Amino acid sequence: MQTLLPAHRIYLIVALLPWLALLGWLAAVSWFLTDDAYISFRYVRNLLEGHGLVFNVGERVEGYSNFLWVLELAAIWGILGIKPEHAAPWLSVIYTAATIAALLWWAWRTPSLRCRSLTAWMALGLVCSSATFAVWTSGGGLETRQFTFFVVLAVVCLALYRNNQWALLTASLSLAAASLTRPEGPLIAVLCFGWFAVQRMLDAGRPRLDWRELAFLIAPFAILIAGHFLFRYAYYGEWLPNTYYAKHVRPWYESGFRYLWAAALETGLYLLLPLVAVALRERWRQYRDGACALILLIIVVHMAYVMRIGGDHFEYRPLDFYWPLLALPAAVGIVHLGGRIADRMQRIRASARVRILSSPPAWALLLFVPVIFYSSAMQAALLFEGAKIDERIKRIHIELGDDNAGWLLSAPGMPALAAISNDLRASLVRQNVGDRFVEHREFADLMIARWQPYENMQRGIIPGDAVMTRGSIGIHSYHLPELTVIDSMGLTDATVARNPVTRPNRERQMAHDRFPPPGYLEQRGVNIYVHPPADTVEQAFYLGNYVAPVGPNLWMPIESDDHEWVSSAFAGRDLIVSSDYFAELTRGNTPAIRSDFDVHLVENRLIYVKEQCGPNDLDAAFFLHLHPVDVNDLPDDRKQYGFDNRDFYEDRLIRLANTCWAIVPLPEYDVAEIRTGQFIEVDGGYKHIWEGEIRPE
Fold first, then answer.
1. How far lies 290's CA from each of 100, 297, 298, 396, 483, in Å?
2. pLDDT band (50, 70, 90) for residue 527
3. Is residue 540 located within the same domain as residue 668?
4. Which end of the chain is less packed: N or C, by CB atoms within 10 Å?
5. Residue 1: its pLDDT value, please?
6. Separation in Å, CA 4 to CA 11, 175, 322, 377
7. Cβ contacts of 388 within 8 Å, gap of 6 or more
8. Alpha-carbon distance 690 to 677, whole Å?
9. For residue 391, is pLDDT > 80?
10. Whole-angstrom Cα distance, residue 654 to residue 340?
11. 8 Å CB contact between 500 and 249
């Protein structure tokens, strides 16, 4: 075993630091949370509050597929008091650091590794320069990087220490942990077991196995996984999680192929996999080392699995463990090819007697440059273009072209690769496959901003029999833990998850294929829709026909057509009924303007009211001109006109049955005259439908 001097170790550590800094930078740019993570967070909350591993209290449905992740987050919240939305991203960072440590240990302990320091440096570079790897460093709050770590740890144990029973035990427990983290864990475990059996027979030179070794590797895994299956069946009444039934419709090979092909172009898999094959040939020929065969076996079979299921809703999430597994063998392949080229250059130099570069490390570095560029540049371009997007929109497609990636397209072959990638990603995003992290980030940020104020509201405001249905159920449901929520896409609802999907694959939407069967929502008693909280009661009435106070300056808009249920369920609770509220506002007040709309002046507010409000009343815009007592009170851009323009449109109207209301606050300065009415555009001009004026006393 090669031993480095302390000074050399310092040089190596210093050389590794820029790669780690690069990963930290990319991870910071792509830091995000996703709505889906909050589904698991709600299970965590209910577990800690004594309701069990359930999404809705009293309903045992396994709407998660990351059992170990849920238990870890529950332990962190219960013991340390750190909520899962804060703990989950940093837990992913810890698993990222552990994954990198395992990779470097693998590089350092692999026997007879040529140019060890250079190989470790290149392996770390391939991982840390991967924008896709960086995206899942925070993990969106999901369990992705935990799964990656346990898979990498198991492979490292088998690659380095397959003669050590304790290492086999560690590998077994790691594979069990991976299987309790992600549903494809058992598939990878079976591949590891099969590889180990074949490798041990090849090591021994005979078709016989040491069953004690095999027991150390398989038995702990089998006991833990069998125990989890028995727990699932006893607790949920199913052998498989409900998420399997919700997401698995039928094989979707055409989508899976596009997903993997896009990933290959973006992440350089078309370069990394052949380099691993080169490393396999070299390591097997010289040392009978089949570790690279294990990696290729895992990745190729897993790619077939991903192709069958059609890919994933998220940006290359299932492939996350590929990059640390491929990095070291790819670096070994680069070093080997560099050595082959150097040997050839040495022969040319000797025969032709000319000065020519013949250093193996130098040639390995020359090969490394295009490999890292073609495996990371397109990822980086997409990441930074995505990070610029701050619009709250869906189905984001990033088109790489001369205007935003000219530097990338100047490289040989990149225009063609980028064009193919653009087409593939455009077709994927139309079916919600491979959505970029930025889409999930923007949606989650918007939802958190809307719903998080409910987190500190007093319990007991929502009736126990209130039932709501929604599609995106994570963030909303986490912040309203007492509300029963029917997942209209089936992740947490057994009936919706098993509702047949008849539309063909070309019309499918990844993870959005299921819908409630006819009559199911009525059968479940859906009777309420809770909107995000509002700062004022008037704002709340723009969303719902009932409003409940839930905190200081915080109002819950509630929408329900079952008025009898509302009256009964909210009896004894503070609840404001819209019709009563608006009637009280104008009770005893004489309209200042009587026209199509009656306009009341009440406590520095204008209240517009019209009974029997029809569609024509909603088509016309409202003008509102405020003439101040002192023109200096006007904003600077309005002083030249002598009045303030506060025109508004039909979106300010609140419809209650056939009555329309609008409440408009007046400014704090003294107003001498108010002119208001409605107008429409006619032949490029404006026509007043009605108008009037008010002179406040």
1. 22, 11, 13, 42, 54
2. very high
3. no
4. C
5. 42
6. 10, 33, 30, 33
7. none
8. 5
9. no
10. 77
11. no
Contact 268, 376 (CB under 8 A): yes
pLDDT at residue 614 in the model? 77
Is 54 in contact with 61 (CB distance < 8 Å)? Answer: yes
Which tokens sit at 192? Answer: 């590891």
Two tokens at 507?
Answer: 């019309």
Distance CA 73, CA 46 (A): 12
Give pTM, 2 decimals: 0.90
Of the candidates 80, 95, 189, 82, the one whose C-alpha atom is nearest the C-alpha of residue 142 is: 95
Domain membership flag for residue 339: yes
Pick from 66-80, 154-168, 510-524 the range whose average pLDDT is largest.
66-80
Phi (first) and psi of residue 361, to 5 degrees:
-60, -35
Whether 292 contacts 274, CB under 8 Å: no
Backbone angles phi and psi of 100, in degrees to 5: -65, -40
Q: 558 and 643 in one domain?
A: no
Q: Which domain holds residue 531?
A: 527-575
**Torsion angle (degrees, nearest 10) of CA 495, 497, 500, 503:** 140
Sign of CA dihedral 20, 26, 32, 37: negative
What's the rounded Cα separation, in Å, for the pair 330 and 384?
Answer: 26
Residue 239 buriedness (CB in 10 A; 0-12 / 13-18 / 19+) = exposed
Let me know whether 424 and 542 are in one domain: no
- Please tell me the predicted confidence (pLDDT) of residue 287: 86
Q: Are 561 and 617 members of one domain?
A: no
In angstroms, the CA 408 to CA 373 distance is 9
What token pair was written down for 479? Answer: 């912040």
**Same structural domain, 292 and 416:** yes
Instruction: Return d(Cα 497, Cα 249) in angstroms, integer.
Output: 10
The C-alpha atoms of residue 225 and residue 182 are separated, in whole angstroms, by: 12
